[in-house]
Write a structure and sequence with these properties.
single chain, mainly beta, Neuraminidase, four-stranded antiparallel β-sheet, globular
Length: 415
């Protein structure tokens, strides 16, 4: 167990990493005032000093510090390459493991045997059993939804499946693939792959553009599901009201486009807005406020450079008709699963955004006001773990899973 008071060093040692590109209830209470008088938490030199933010506060915003005493507790290290975690109504958690298994964990760290009945995954590279969520009516129907990488003729793709968690919790019953992000592509990278439900019970699903120079342009192409956020029904059909419905040149499931590799999706409980976190290349990790029909720029505009050091495309960061990120990081933190804090255990966290970071090896807390980031904090950095996903437990604490063959399961809550 590691106990912290939430007063962290301002200078953090962050080893350069390619991040994911290497084996990546609403409250009526008023927000707690935030003391954002600390220096920015990022002190390392940017990879691209020539790129300047489009507006004040778009990067390296003032630091904040949680005043509540915190305990960071490792509950288990018995997970094998965990990728996604979702809270269950009874206070337990359902977790995906990359090779193709699900497990149930208690908030005391007890881990179940593998759950069977899940379609085969393609676990090479960044592929495998990935994002997970449960039906809003799970308490009555026990339906689970997950994303995974699937082998197809000509390559692999991001797929979404659903099935019922059996009463004995040993199997997924009647597993069915409901959606495939076409086209398949010969890459084992950038599957994206988070799932969240909108207020109408439809699914937002993120995809990646599959990383390769050849596939990147598809993020801008509306006849491709690569590099997109799609919005589908529980049966995998395009949801009513999607922005490109009726256009012959566009896939009707597309909600937004121009994304690189979105491994974070969350809905702000205070506003109902959809937010994402996505990987840049070398620098340029982003947080975006996602609006229907909008173009988020990749690979035309970016605050990142190639891993080799060269510019991406024309080397521009802004273009008319393309959205700016609300916030970006350079150097990278490798942003993965994320969640808005919607509990009462730690009032100063209300409606803050928390996100697991891989190469950054911490959980980032972002304070957001009027859709702008006004404060950043790094939690659990002393654990030196690649935090893959984070959720809010029924007890009001944060729970997180970390990469690795001895993958860790953490609770971060009030001391």
């Amino acid at each position: 167990m590691t106990t912290i008071k939430a007063f962290f060093p301002l200078a953090l040692l962050i080893a350069f990493s390619f991040g994911a590109c290497n084996p990546d209830r609403p409250s009526d209470s008023k927000p707690v005032p935030v003391d954002s008088t600390y220096p920015p938490v990022e002190t390392s030199a940017p990879n691209s000093p020539q790129y300047k933010p489009a507006f004040e506060g778009q990067t390296r915003v003032a630091g904040v510090k949680t005043k509540t005493g915190l305990e960071v507790k490792m509950l288990s290290n018995q997970l094998v390459n965990p990728w996604g975690i979702v809270s269950l109504p009874d206070g337990r958690f359902l977790i995906t493991e990359k090779a193709g298994t699900m497990r149930i964990a208690t908030n005391a760290g007890q881990i179940s045997a593998p759950i069977t009945g899940i379609p085969a995954v393609s676990a090479d590279g960044q592929g495998g059993l990935l994002g997970i969520n449960i039906d809003p009516d799970f308490a009555s129907n026990r339906m689970v939804y997950w994303s995974f990488s699937e082998n197809q003729p000509g390559g692999t793709l991001t797929a979404v499946a659903k099935g019922r968690l059996a009463n004995d919790e040993k199997t997924i019953e009647n597993a069915t693939v409901i959606y495939r992000a076409l086209p398949a592509f010969a890459s084992t990278l950038h599957y994206g792959s988070r799932i969240v439900f909108d207020k109408d019970g439809n699914l937002f699903v993120s995809t990646g553009e599959r990383s390769n120079i050849q596939s990147r342009p598809q993020a801008q192409q509306l006849n491709s599901a690569l590099g997109k956020i799609v919005r589908i029904t529980k049966n995998g059909q395009p949801a009513a009201g999607n922005p490109f419905t009726g256009r012959a040149d566009a896939k009707p499931e597309i909600y937004s486009y121009g994304h690189r590799n979105v491994q974070g999706l969350a809905i702000n409980p205070a506003t109902g807005d959809l937010w994402n976190g996505e990987f840049g290349a070398r620098g340029g990790d982003e947080i975006n406020l996602v609006k229907p029909g909008k173009d988020y720029g990749w690979p035309t505009i970016t605050y990142s450079i190639e891993y080799s050091g060269g510019k991406i495309g024309e080397g521009i960061t802004q273009k008319e008709g393309m959205e700016q990120p609300v916030y970006y990081w350079d150097p990278v933190i490798s942003p993965s699963g994320m969640v808005f804090y919607n509990a009462d255990l730690i009032p100063e966290w209300k409606n803050n955004l928390f996100m697991g970071c891989l190469s950054g090896m911490h959980i980032v807390r972002l304070v957001i006001k009027d859709n702008k980031v006004i404060g950043e904090e790094r939690l659990a950095s002393g654990e030196q773990q690649r935090f893959r996903d984070v959720t809010v437990g029924k007890d009001g604490a944060l729970y997180a899973v970390c990469d690795g063959q001895n993958g860790r399961f953490y609770r971060i809550g009030k001391k």
